[in-house]
Amino acid sequence: MFTAAITGSGVFTPETSISNDELVAAFNSYADTFNADNADAISAGTLDAKPHSSTDFIVAASGIERRYVMDKSGVLDPSKMHPSLPERADDAPSLMAEMGVDACNKALAQAGVDAADIDAVLCAASNHERAYPAIAVEIQQLLGAGGFAFDMNVACSSATFGIQAATDMIRSGSIRRALVVNPEICSAHLEWRDRDCHFIFGDVATAVVIERAEDAKGDHFVIKSTRCATQFSNNIRNNNGFLRRTRNGHMEDRRDMQFMQNGRKVFKEVLPMVSKHIANHMADDGIQADDLNRLWLHQANKTMNDYIGKKVLGREPETGEQPNILQDYANTSSAGSIIAFSKYSDDLDHGDTGVICSFGAGYSVGSVILERVKS
Ligand code: CO8
């Protein structure tokens, strides 16, 4: 058995971001037009008027202040309300691959590893832009990586489940080094015309290099253990798939072809599941709350993270102990906890302990216990 370690991480951040005020202005303009266009049906009581969204609600309910997106103009155009991401020719790099390669190159540079020395690329994301060939194989080729590659999807827990898969391969000796990459184009799966969720998601890509600890060239994080759990729920669902058909030739006629959730139920059901999952994982590894120096949580909702942090630590987390990035990135599905890890881990001292934890659709929960090693 070999010991696995995260030796590098990288984040690709899109160039453009949308503030809550910009988003709400676009939504309200769309709602006003909708209500004017349907004034007769609304006054006859056969159609509900669309109420305005509000920045205050968004910040209070979620903690989100802005989000990065791959295309801002389409999302903010009240006559479109979706990103304009033109389809690319088959011989051009796909958008997910392009974003993923940027994050991978940053992670490889931090690890001091050549792409050619990578044995496996796992593209772990909540949506893949095509059925096949796997985005991971395209990323492998664009990077010049060796070995094999495959795609996997466990929604918001894709990254941690991918880390567990790669870690197990490294431990057993079947591979020496892996890249786990998470390109998340959430903006293309979000119904920007739905007031209940139009503020939730953003775009990003993250990557980590995982290799044998003995091969690490600098400071790194030893992976002490990983744990994954799932429990079926329809409370977060997207029905888009190859057996589905558009109605009347218009995809937009089917609300279920985009992200849907019962947010309140998710909130209530996932919180105890996650708190218990982390507590059990730590207890089985002999880690007390006092031993924990950092919690890098899934980035969906600030209140949710505050609650989990308090449950796990048995007290209010101190500033920096449980860093949130959702105020700037919104929910970036599987990438959220990895952004937090990548941006808020350098300051940890030799021997410090941290937990990455993701949770979301499935339901799914994944936790990774790390120990800082400084050379
Ligand atoms: N502006 C103003 N008012 C609003 C708005 C708005 N934008 N939206 C809703 N309201 C109103 C509602 O109509 C409601 O009014 P009333 O009380 O009169 O009915 C009131 O505000 C309260 O609404 P909610 O009950 O919906 O509000 P909550 O306080 O529950 O907050 C949240 C909503 C923020 C969604 C919250 O429930 C939450 O964060 N839940 C957890 C969500 C979560 O963690 N989800 C994980 C999903 S991510 C995942 O698994 C990955 C999936 C793959 C990603 C795909 C990419 C797209």
Model description:
33% of the residues lie in helices and 23% in strands. By secondary structure, the chain is an alpha+beta fold. The mean pLDDT is 95. Helix 5 (95-111) packs across helix 6 and helix 8 (263-284) packs parallel to helix 9 (302-313). It contains eleven helices and 13 strands. The strands form three sheets. The chain has a nine-stranded mixed sheet, with helices on both faces. Strands 2-3 form a two-stranded antiparallel sheet. It has helices at residues 20-37, 39-44, 55-62, 72-76, 95-111, 135-143, 158-172, 263-284, 302-313, 326-329, 336-343, and strands at residues 4-12, 16-19, 66-69, 120-124, 148-152, 177-185, 203-212, 220-230, 236-237, 260-261, 292-297, 353-360, 364-373. It is globular, with a radius of gyration of 21 Å.
